[in-house]
């Protein structure tokens, strides 16, 4: 396995002792604040993937983050760039105001499923439809985490949560919302993809997708959203390993992975 | 090339500020606010159609396209619009939104966050009659909402109550200036009378402002600097309490330094009217008429309804026989008048109009003559109930 030698050290990081070389370190776009997520939660992994994508594109000093309401409300502490902590579900609207005001910035809205697909449904649909040139990271773990395991708009049919104690009943709560499929019909969308963070292979794809989404924003192509299937072991009453397996066994058949829109690929397919 | 396009190009070549609203114009209040805002450096507007303020969003949808780096978006909702203001103002832009009562209720979540994050911006409420959908006629029923924060939590917005089209333009400027001075949202509280009527406006009297990016605003790091964060969450009660103390100290400074009011015919008056916004115009007409009959009546008009001019009103009311309040609601500002006179009570007479029915100067004169005949007339005497 080849190892890239890290040549540029973070500010404040002491150089390695003689005879040693740094081959891996925390991405520059992450701060050195210890994350507060639960054991087995995949937010941290997605943060890491996002930070690596930002580093590789060299855009950290242009990034402005939108923190949501939910477990990742404090993510402004974990990233090393400017942030606005937005009202619940409103991040795409706040992001719109920021991006239109600072067109050269890279605006990243990081949202969970309750935030994006329930209380903020109007904001995400219209931001996508206007083709806001922003990148949305959409964490779909099929449950409300911060508030303690209530049913999410993406909870699976039959799934037991603290507000669907007898299992999600479609006659009461409908079926889970498929965000990528829903947004894929809208004119302003440049890139829509659903990936899963439950294993290493999936995480590598998450990072590649985030990098592509940010690249599309840099190129001004329009709205990009990366949906990431994640685990919430605490609130789904599972061990981290079980939770990852549950994604594999139960979520993947409901939430099909893959690209739902990719304007560049669509143009190439048309021979443009 | 059409003649209009040719003229525009010619204008652009001759004057780099060709897009700036200027000169003396006959304007609606809702247009004047926008013209004043643009002169005051507003480059971003986000709004949603609602009567009776549609002239504002319509004006901005055109005018801001000519302003350098101007941003206009018709939001998908009132909620989205105020959050777009949060984002744009968060980058340091002078950003505004406008709406009318039901729409401003929807914006309250965002206004609370904006106040919590200490982001300066301008919000106009062209008040209509409520509750609920109510109607689109002039009303002053949102006074409590406007002067007591309005959304959840313990905060205040600097609230200006213009009574002319000229003042609509000026208050857009003043609202932005105060907002940025104090890092606090400013509100223009008006109604369909002022918003819809046309009066001559001297736009050149509104100062032109070319804002620079403030040192708290999020944005691109041209040179290395610490991260900037705009947030309103403080989970630790001790930390939150300290933050509250910071806000309270700021609000107290605003109360000390930014009180504004106007007085007319007060020097020799024996009866003092208190009224704000459109009502103060009707009252002024009535006072002119009563003065010709020798009645000593004056008017005290709060211009900032938050901070309310408690002390100035108490001083002015000290020598009056009685104080008379006219409001387009069933009694909101009158509670502030009563608070102002807490230590030096006076008989208070209250004449409301509500539901969208407005006063005529003749009706006001009639009510005042009734009080002049009997300064303790029981039928209009107000007491807390």
Strand share of the residues of chain B?
15-25%
What structural class results from the helix and strand content of chain A?
alpha/beta
What distance lies between the first and last C-alpha atoms of chain A, to the nearest angstrom? 39 Å
Helix content of chain B: 40-55%
Explain how this protein is built.
- The complex is a heterodimer of chains A (about 270) and B (about 375).
- Helices cover about 35% and strands about 15% of the residues of chain A.
- Chain A has ten helices and seven strands.
- Chain A has a seven-stranded mixed sheet, with helices on both faces.
- The longest helix of chain A has 19 residues, at about 200-220.
- In chain A, helix 1 (about 45-55) packs across helix 8 (about 200-220) and helix 4 crosses helix 5 (about 120-130).
- Chain A has one domain: Thiamin diphosphate (ThDP)-binding fold, Pyr/PP domains (Rossmann fold), CATH 3.40.50.
- Chain A is α/β, with parallel strands linked by helices and about 270 residues long.
- With about 375 residues, chain B is α/β, with parallel strands linked by helices.
- Chain B has two domains: about 15-205, Rossmann fold (3-Layer(aba) Sandwich); about 260-375, Rossmann fold (3-Layer(aba) Sandwich).
- In chain B, the strands form three sheets. Chain B has a seven-stranded mixed sheet, sandwiched between helices.
- In chain B, helix 2 (about 30-40) runs parallel beside helix 3 (about 55-65).
- The longest helix of chain B has 21 residues, at about 235-255.
- Chain B is globular, with a radius of gyration of 22 Å.
- The chains are: A alpha/beta (about 270), B alpha/beta (about 375).
- The interface of A and B includes residues 62, 74, 81, 96 and 98 of A.
